[in-house]
Specification:
Blueprint lengths: L1 E7 L2 H8 L2 H8 L3 E7 L12 E2 L9 E2 L1 H12 L4 E9 L3 H10 L6 E3 L16 E3 L2
Parallel strand pairs: 1-2, 5-6, 5-7
Antiparallel strand pairs: 3-4
């Protein structure tokens, strides 16, 4: 059975999306299992804060790396972590099985973020790179 891990600030969105159409049918038939984790569960302050102002100032907010690292450690359990990035290897149908064998026999977890490039703070948690 394929296990797909999702760490997000909005688990309700993913639970709803994974319950319908092709992902929903795969789960009903026992072909896939979805584990949706709330990123705020990995914080330790009273307000479950996951973001902070950028170092050096500037507009907007950035995600704190600590909750993300704790979530990745919870997912790890011997399986590789794949960071999705534009600089990694491209996954295609012909290469996908060979590439995932490189990741090992465990259930790899794919981590991605919605931003151009990647954060240097996220580098230590990934054991492989893939193109998103």
């Amino acid at each position: 059975m394929l296990t797909i891990n999702v760490v997000t600030l909005f688990p309700e969105v993913f639970q709803a999306a994974l319950a319908v159409s092709i992902p929903g049918r795969a789960a009903e038939r026992g072909l896939a299992r979805y584990r949706v984790l709330q990123l705020r569960d990995y914080t330790h302050d009273r307000h479950h804060t996951v973001d902070d102002s950028p170092y050096g100032g500037g507009a907007g907010m950035v995600l704190k790396p600590e909750p993300f690292f704790e979530a990745v450690e919870d997912l790890r359990a011997g399986a590789p972590i794949v960071l999705l990035s534009a600089r990694g290897w491209c996954s295609s149908r012909s290469r996908s099985s060979r590439r995932w064998k490189i990741c090992g026999r465990g259930r790899p977890s794919c981590c991605c973020r919605h931003a151009a490039g990647r954060s240097a703070t996220a580098t230590p948690c990934g054991s492989r790179w893939a193109s998103s």
